Task: structure prediction
Amino acid sequence: MEIIIQPTHHELAAITSLIIRDALLKKPNLVLGLATGSTPIGLYKALVKLHREEKLDFSNVTTFNLDEYIGISIEHPESYHTFMSKHFFDHVNIPSENQHIPQNTTKNHEAFCTSYEEAIVRAGGIDIQVLGIGTDGHIGFNEVGSSLSSRTRIKTLSLSTIKANAIHFDGKIDAVPEMAITMGIGTIMDAKQCLLLASGEAKSEAIAKAVEGPITAMVPASILQMHPKTTVIIDEAAASRLEEVEYYKRSYANRQKLMSQKQ
Ligand code: GLP
Result:
């Protein structure tokens, strides 16, 4: 795992956008795995800025979102379809047929989940998967206890996730859908690269467990320790409970030094 610690959310969003920009310049038909939640909003803003100011071209990009609630319409203001249009898709040139978000309206969820997995394979697999993390260490909607090799499927949300997400539903716990379709942990692990983002003190415990704790289904993000190319990009507050901060900072500085010598 590569750990990048930045002063604030602003810098972590900027750095992540540059990682994606560089990958996109190398591979115009990049396949991006996308996340929702408050954490990646800054990243989407930064990518939209690159599109507007540097003409970063997304016309050959394909995207797959991690998850979507079941039980609310895709037009609902808090659906992940609405979120993605509002924060990203309405502002860049990704063809709509290349945008994939789990369909919550299907009657045959099992067939849909299989077809989602097949569509990812047909696209050539996910090149970069963007991830946030729940305060309990979940990724996507792979709640605590999820199989570490799970595939796209339906999950019931934990009480902790329902409570955390209630802020998006006027604080009303009863308004938060209880179920969702989510890529599995095995699906996420198949991505060629994962970028795990977190900011704020509230995420510090989850980050410490995911990065420095044992690999366990009780902290789903901890499986990323087994991924060959995961970069954890966090701010100082989210890094505050990590034990090896000095090492992570020095490693990152050394990698930067090597990169600048190459150029
Ligand atoms: C939800 C999403 C996750 C996200 C998490 C944290 O559970 N399904 O993908 O990482 O919330 O969201 P936030 O970034 O708002 O803290």
Notes: The CA atoms of residues 11 and 235 lie 8 Å apart. The longest strand covers residues 193-198. The two ends are 24 Å apart (CA to CA).
